[in-house]
Specification:
There is one protein chain. It is built from 7 helices and 5 strands; from the N terminus they run βββαβαβααααα. By secondary structure, the protein is of the alpha/beta class. The chain has a single domain, classed as Nucleotidyltransferase, domain 5 (2-Layer Sandwich), CATH 3.30.420. The radius of gyration is 18 Å and the shape is globular.
């Protein structure tokens, strides 16, 4: 009997960090938790980062996820915002790695494409698809929570696809060349 997989999905942020835990039971995704960590009451950025690290560690300890998926920062025009977001993402990743979890990062476009079929979908469209797929009735107060759930579900879809299974043994060009010397042209 296959063991259930639990995926921790994170939508990083320095004001609100979305997080979600998704259980995969017999191939079917089930929502365990979807919420946000509110950081706006803390004025010190380093205190916020410590809170992010602590919360991710608590979630890992409590739910024992087998893998960790996080949304990559969106490249906007404000460099300061990007730096802050990168710090928040780095702290969350460090907490997951410290716990020995495999970390996978997905671009916002990849997450949207995976959930809705449209990489340019808006947050409400992503939420409506999550509602249908996972039979969720109550809409959360913040889209950061649904974004984290979308990241976790995207990871499930990406890691369980036939293409993902086919590529598990590949280790790059060196392995390909070693395995297929007759397919390499030499000048």
């Amino acid at each position: 009997m296959a063991k259930d997989e639990i995926i921790l999905g994170i939508d990083p942020g320095t004001q609100l960090m979305g997080y979600a835990l998704l259980r995969i039971h017999k191939g079917q995704p089930q929502v365990l938790l979807m919420d946000v960590l509110k950081l706006t009451s803390q004025k010190d950025i380093y205190a916020r980062l410590e809170t992010i690290h602590t919360r991710v560690c608590e979630l890992v300890k409590l739910y024992k996820p087998s893998t960790f998926a996080i949304e990559a920062p969106f490249f906007g025009k404000n460099v300061q915002s990007m730096l802050k977001l990168g710090r928040a993402q780095g702290v969350a990743i460090a907490a997951a790695m410290q716990a020995g979890l495999t970390v996978t990062e997905y671009s916002p476009k990849k997450v949207k494409q995976s959930i809705t079929g449209n990489g340019n979908a808006d947050k409400d469209q992503v939420w409506k698809m999550l509602q249908r797929i996972l039979q969720i009735e109550e809409k959360p107060q913040y889209f950061d929570a649904t974004d984290a759930l979308a990241v976790a579900l995207c990871h499930h879809y990406q890691s369980s696809s036939p293409l993902a299974a086919a590529g598990k043994g590949l280790k790059g060009w060196e392995a390909f060349i070693a395995k297929n010397p007759g397919r390499v042209k030499k000048n």
